[in-house]
Amino acid sequence: MPLRANLPSVVRILLPILISQSVLGLAIKYRHSTLSSEVLVAWLFFLPSHSLRYPWTILTATLVENNLVSLALATLTIFYGGRYLERAWTSVEFAKFLLVISLIPNIICCGALLSLFALTGNPQWTNTIIHGTLSIQVSFLVAFSQLIPTHTVTIFKGIISVRVTRLPILHVLGVTFLVMTPLLSLASFLLNVTGFLTSWTYLRFYKEAFPDLQTSQSSLRGDASDTFAFAEFFPDPVKPLIATISNKLFDFLVILRICTPFSAAEVSASNGELFMQRGTPGSARAEAERRRALALKALDQRLHAATANHAKTSNSFSSTPDGPSMQVHSQSAGLELERLRGDTSCSPKGTPDEERMAP
Asked: Which regions span the lipid bilayer (predicted)?
């Protein structure tokens, strides 16, 4: 019961499906080959040659792993990464994201394998199994790059330190290396690369973002912030080249009306001037409450310090020119503190004192 209570609704659905389908696939793998087991594999995994007969596998095969190591990694990915993203985005937005990063990479991978079959005539391509959470794994890393672009992952007691924005490319490189071994097939590489590109495209241009509570606009689509540009995933030496190529590709997509160019206002909004892009509508209220708490704490300290200094001065000197001004300062700080404590409104921008006290 505690485990269920700590998991959001979509993650609670995904984990049993992943584990049950993967265990079923492992059981089939270690059974003696029979006609019924071959049909069941086609029903469970996504094969281009059987895609018309079992169309649902184009979506469900994403949650099937064929070995215990990949199953454990997929379980951890959905448990921790999925829980974080669902709470940051809401269950509806997280479900939309999962649908996009599961369906589109599988379709592209199937189309690529069918094209290879048409070119070579080798039936091996149409019988290549498409399955696994590789597209989900790299897509979650892309989402983290959007939400926490300045964070750094440190392992081995600080010996290795990697920025979050570099993790998707490292994941792609790792999968590319494993494809050269018998561990992974070409389908895994295609799923990984298309998952990376699909997730970034969706988050960059299509995902709905939530506005600051003080603005009159209802929503903003995509994320035009500089920190989420495609070139930011790559090391600094190759960023100019990647930026040039991606800009040319973007101009081509604009001509095809697949993407819409961002306006200056949208760029400013995504960079944080108008919108709380990286969170739910409650993020603005939470930020205002955080600033108010900081302001209250600072005013408390000022009030106590002023009171203590005034008492010390009164004991040492019967009358000083600074006495009245110190008393006025204490009373002013106290009135300001009472005003903040009694204010029940929540403004994302905060009061002038809150803005000055906020880090």
From this structure: 6-27, 39-56, 68-85, 97-117, 129-148, 169-191
Are 20 and 98 in contact by the 8 Å Cβ rule? The answer is no
Q: Which domains does the chain have, with CATH numbers?
A: 2-206 (1.20.1540.10), 282-314+323-357 (no CATH)
Would you give the distance in Å from CA 39 to the centre of its chain?
37
- Give long-range contacts, CB 8 A cutoff, 24+ apart: 26-31: 26/66, 26/67, 26/68, 26/71, 29/66
Give pTM, 2 decimals: 0.73
Residues 299-327 have a mean pLDDT of 61
CA distance 133 to 127: 19
**Backbone angles phi and psi of 46, in degrees to 5:** -100, 110
pLDDT band at 5 (very low <50, low <70, confident <90, very high): low
Helices 167-179 & 186-205 angle (0-180, nearest 10): 160
The mean per-residue pLDDT over the stretch 300-312 comes to 71
In SS3 terms, 35-53 reads as: HHHHHHHHHHCECHHHCCC
Residue 137 CB partners (closer than 8 Å, separation 6+):
73, 74, 77, 81, 171, 195
